[in-house]
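Example with several molecule types.
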Amino acid sequence: MSALLEVEGLSKSYPVMERRLFRARQRTEIRAVDGVSFSIAAGQTLGLVGESGCGKTTTARAILNLVQPTEGMVRFQGDDIVPIFRQGDRARILAIRRSLQYVFQDPWLSLNPRWTIGETLREPLRVHRPEAPQTWATRVDELLRMVGLEPHHAWRYPHEFSGGQRQRVGIARALAVEPKLLILDEPVSSLDVSVRAQILNLLAELQDRLGLAYLYISHDLSSVRFISTHVAVMYLGKLVEIGEVDEIFSRPRHHYTRALMSAIPVPQPGAAQTRIALQGEVPSALRRPSGCPFHPRCAAALPVCAETEPMLSPPEAGHRTACHNPA
Amino acid sequence: MAAAQPLLEVRDLKVHFFTREGVVRAVDGVDYSVNRAETLGIVGESGSGKTVSSLAMLRLVPPPARTVAGQILFDGEDLLTRTPKQMAALRGRHISMIFQNPATSLNPIYSIGAQLTEILTWHEKASRRDAEARAIELLGLVGISDPATRLRQYPHELSGGMRQRIGIARALLCNPSLVLADEPTTALDVTIQAQILELLAELQARFRMSMVLVTHDMGVVARMATRITVMYAGRVCETADAATIFNAPQHPYTRALLESMPRIDHSYAGPARRVLPSIPGRPPNLLNPPSGCRFHDRCPEAQAECRCLLPVETAVAPGHTVSCLRRGSPGIAA
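Resulting structure tokens for the full complex:
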């Protein structure tokens, strides 16, 4: 399988000054993303799930170099793109950005309120297709139709649109430069239930039609199950489990994944749901537990879990888990 | 029959926002009731009027909104005719509220202890010592470790889940008979949400209190509610016990809403996977709501009459009411 995007050992840490009473200030770091590896093939969707603060969004941003990765490799179509960003060769960076586009969570904040929708959609064309301005207008029409809007919407401003329509514009903007992979960061979280289904259907349809690959970031596991072919679960900056969607959902092996799934209330009253209760809350990334980051909250923790950090099982396994005592 | 009288009965409630652009009919003729020791789940999308109608019960609708019509019978007495002073004596004591965002519903400049004991010294004229003892007892009850220390802490020192536990403790301090919980877990992560829901269910059973749970999450109501009211565009579509709403919904909106949600326990892999049945269009603008049935322009079953007649809630089975002309509801010209 030739992967379109391969991420290997990706890390992002932020330096922080820790102040403690009666002690000198200490320089430490927060490891927001810690050695994350996965790959996505053309036409596939990797759902990246986890709770707030687990590093999902930072992972996505590090892939696009919106934050500079501290360590690790990001290979896109075979080339490591981290050094390309670091060298700052504009032509090559633009070429990468053309293929890797981002759809933001909040369609209220991610569209310029002073630009018409047409201007918003022409902007990526102006940057990436400056040689053919005569084609922009037709491309804008085409994009609007592609996402289920009408060409005359190009003359309107964002405030005239509902959340669902704005998210369609956000998707159209990302598609303007014919990318190969879209990073979708919680694209339906801020939308109403009845509109959510429309956007999820649109994303599925566009993927089939254009052969796109998606990195779908969400804390909403039911939409992840719908859209993804593969799922990766993160906890405190680490990847704890990754595999095919039905594998992960029907036979989760990491105890965090199991707890996360059992915590979702099923829309069926009286459903026999055995919830795996998690004690306490996610610890601060500043005080990351030793060994397995999940061990203080894990019911199946062994003595070894507090000492040695479990590694993700080898890639041949398909369904990979970082756990000493998987279920 | 006295025992069968519901604790709370909302009749034909109308709350309108008088804005510069015109009158927004946020809640436009809503009826529901809450029995003793049960949880009524009110579900709907944003703008359906679920939050505004629950604020109206406490007479807390913010200007430019006004409660323009209806009755809110609490223990047989109409809250809308009470004086502000009588309402103040009732809020937090007999009816209390758990808010959506625990970060903004606690006062950042007062300690947890000050915020909790104030309620007791105000409502029950409790001494400071008694109030503190009661506050410590409740913090223990909502699962907060080391409650005596927490009293001296401030909201910013606590995590979101802890703050929401404090919000729950605050709502229960005076043993209210009715608790209004407005999206109590929406701001929390799922594993914390599960902890909080479990806590609410346990406390509700223990104190036999009634609860109104306002949410947009069908999973949460399925887990918590005894009966469910589905709202759309300021009107009630359907009310029934939880199992009926999920297993035999009658109103086209309820059906469409349930079908449009992806299910975590359903596999979408395979070639014929991915089309979710979705509701076309979007929720209406209530400045200018659709004529007749509010849902008609998005409804797969709409007929000509749906455009001109407003359906009135009718029982289709004991305890199951629907407002849909296609299900036998009478219509009034509107």
